[in-house]
Structures are given as C-alpha cells and as structure tokens.
Amino acid sequence: MNTVGKKMGVFLGGTFAQDPGLTNLVDRAVELAHEVADAGIRTVWFGQAADYDAPQLAALVGRAEPRIGVGTSVVPTYPRHPLLLAAAAKTAQAATTGRFRLGVGLGARTVLEPQFGLPYPPQIKHLREYLIALRPLLDGDDAPFVGQTLTSRPAGPTTVAGAVPQVPVLVAAMGPRALAAAGELAEGTIPFLAGPRTLAEQIVPAITEAAAAAGRPAPQIVAGVPAVVTDDAAAARSRVSTALGFYDSIPSYRRVIASEGLSSAADLLIAGDEDTVTAGLRRYFNAGATEIMVTHTDLFDARDRARTWAIARNLCPGTTSVPTGSSRCDRRTVLSHQPTTAGRQKPTEGSGRGPDGQRCTQTSPTRCLLDRE
C-alpha cells in the first residue's frame, strides 16, 4: 500500500499523568515528546480528563519540542465555552508557531452531566452551534453568535498575535449526524475505537460526502488505534482492557465496536510482533484514514514504546522529511535542523510554500513538523 501523504502520531493520555511515581506532569510529558520525536514520529496528541488542561499541555510540550506538531484528542465542548476554548487554542498555536490542531468532541452525557452539575444540551444542535461559533473566534473575528444552546458575544478583540496559520478543528464524530456536522463545519474527524470496516463503510464515506457537499477540502481522518509491539500480547491485552473498559459503557462507543463485529473495546487492540502490528495498522490506512494516532503506548515500558514507534515511523517514512529541492510540504511548518552544542537539533525557518499554502523549507536537511456521536 502506498502511504505517501499519510501520517502517524502518538496519543499520550491520562495514564502517564497518573503514574504514582510522577513528580511533575509537564516535565514527563516533555520527556515522552522527546522520545516520540527521536523515534521519528511527528505528532503528539493529548486527551482531556479531570486533571491537566489539554490545550495548555499541548502548548507547553510543543514549545519545548519543536520537532513535533501537537493536538488535543479531545476537549469536550460541554461545558467549556467557545470563547474560552478558542482563546486557549490560539494561544497554543502561537506558542508552537503554527503546530497545533484542536480536537473537540461531544463527550459522554453520563460522565459530564453529573461531573459539572449542569444540564447536558441537545447533542447535535449543540455541536453544530459550537462549531459555527468557534470558527470565527479562532480566526480573530469578534462577531457575536446567538443560538439555541449557546451565545457568544466577545467583549473585546479576539485576535492573538502569532496564532497562524488557521487552527484546524477536528471533531470526534462517529455517528451520521455528527459526521455530517464535522464534514460541513470542521477540517476532519478523530474517531477512536472505530475499526477498519467501520471506517471504510460508515465514517469515511459520510464525512467525505458532507465535506464535498459543503465545498470543503477532503477531510482529515485521524484514526485512534490502541496498538503495541510486544513479546507478551496476552499481558498487553489484560493491561489495555483495564484502561479501555470505561468505553464499553458509552453507547456511541458500543455502537461502533458492535459494527466491527466485536464485543469490547479491548478487542480492537493490535498487539504482537512488528509484522502483526504493521499489518493491523495498514488496515486503517486501507480503510481511508489519512492519519493514525497510536494510543495507549504509555502503558508500556520504554522498550515496547520504542518498538511500537519505530514501526509507526516506518509505515510512513515519507512524512518525516522533505527531499532536497522539493516543493512538497506534507502539512504545517517544515524546519531545517542544525546541530547545537547541546547535541539536540536547533530548528531554523526556511522558505517556500507547499501546495496547501503552508510555509515550508526546500533546503537540506529538512524535517516536516506534521502537524464521537
């Protein structure tokens, strides 16, 4: 299978953040990001739970490790107001010099409503209104928005200097109505626990059709896939089962798991040797994913993480650099790297633009910063 233009990323969820031996969350996130970048992977995603703030952490990590793009996967739209989320996203975009993507999602009513003590709004109506209100705010447009589920009236300027290019918005959409909204109003989707068959038969056609009907470019489809290269697949499954058990109680996840012909979230884990995991991940690209976000590697030791990230890098070798003299820029800022006295590479901006209009270098050596209802 030709993987030109495909991308690989790594999800760092709440598992590492709750390690009993952890002394500083941000320091550890930066350490893991260095590991990811050293392995040749160019995107790191952070989830939002009840502990750290995902956009802030993404901004700090992206600032500390300039070889990677960062994103959130995902921030629930409820009850964070679009004014607040847009401000956080623009700040992250400025902090990372254009290497941030904002992933949002509806969240789970059974979790969010009791957690915040606020009535959960009608989901699809709220998603559509949220995306309509969010995009102008991300672009520094101060125009008010008044809908049925939310109102946004900026009391002052919303522009953030340095928040360029436009922050891409991806929606954790898996059902038909959410996919229609994502295709029409966002840059793509981040489905998690949606297997290859579900991607190919349901998710990819629905969001692609919606984007085309709205006159938008082909959407980004970032598939979240639990995977690990390990010598003990049974032990890996046991460990991941504990982490994924929560999703078996969420109706939207139960539906996509069932549509794959499986009975639990852990059944979607790809675990085994390099050939096994490579073949499993390729199925997602064959199903139409434009990018794979490998999840739950932070559950495992450094050796298993390194083996997993190595096969992820090898799946898409063309996404880590741009050939000398090429005008092709996969996405986001491309930086040339020069050794520093500390041994870590120092990024220096180059010039030129890729076909999507993003700024990129054309000099050698170069390295690309690649970037649920």
From TrEMBL:
Chain intervals for the UniProt region annotation (Disordered): 320-373
Q: What is its EC number?
A: 1.-.-.-
User: Which residues does UniProt call coiled coil?
Assistant: none
The top EC class is oxidoreductase
Q: Which UniProt keywords apply?
A: Oxidoreductase
Q: Which GO terms describe its molecular function?
A: oxidoreductase activity
Which InterPro entries does its entry note? F420-G6PD/mer, Lucif-like_OxRdtase_MSMEG_4879, Luciferase-like_dom, Luciferase-like_sf
* PANTHER family associated with the record: CONSERVED HYPOTHETICAL ALANINE AND PROLINE-RICH PROTEIN, PTHR43244
In Swiss-Prot or TrEMBL terms, this protein is called TIGR03564 family F420-dependent LLM class oxidoreductase
